Amino acid sequence: MQWAGRQQAAFLSPDPAEEVRRIFPALQSPITTSNLTPHELRDLIKAEFRADYAEGLKDRMDAGIDALREVHTQLSMAECSSEAVTEVQDGAVRVRVEAVSGSRGRTSAGAFVFQYRIRVSNEGGKPVQLIGREWRFRNLDGSVHASVPKGSAGVVGHTPVIAPGQSFEYSSGTTLSSPEGRAEGSFQMVVLEDNTEFDAAVGAFRCVHHE
To answer: Could you give the CA distance from residue 205 to residue 116 in angstroms, rounded to a whole number?
Structure first.
């Protein structure tokens, strides 16, 4: 089973660097990039634990626990998300698709329920329109649990025109027979300037059930 939901305002996880700054307001270790990897997050947390260890130990322990919780959240998000960029016409058309999934419990029949959220961004210089989609939702053993054939019209009842620098976001969902699986697919797009059609890739992402 697969269903669609309404357009979303925003869905991406918080910027890891901003979250660390929030957790450590008196941060002593400089953050040189907003794209922190889990390894960099761990090193930063270790450095903060070591700094002024004897002073304010309880506060630093509380902050450290919060920070470790944030690392876990970021790792979970990374496991169940993907990002793919498709370029055509020598880079004049560039579409980025970001996806993230989350567990939503189980149905009365025992199927595992997942929601996924999608952002389609036009990073090129020409307006494009999303006219179709395709999806395959696979159980842990690789079997296809649900699918949407290539070219199925629009998404959530929309065929949005996306101007340069703009994005379209929506949420949808599926069920799986197993507590873990994956989703894969693409969006069918058209360049409005000359009606060139192309497929915008969706990077495969995991769906993982959390108790």
So the answer is: 10
User: What CATH number is attached to the domain comprising 173?
Assistant: 2.60.40.1470
pLDDT tens figures, 137-157: 999 999 999 999 999 998 988
Structural domain containing residue 64: 16-79
The token duo for 15 is 């910027």
Q: Is residue 147 part of a domain?
A: yes
Read off the pLDDT of each residue in 169-177 and give the average, rounded to a whole number. 92
Residues 22 and 56 in one domain: yes
pTM of the model: 0.69
Residues 34 and 74 in one domain: yes
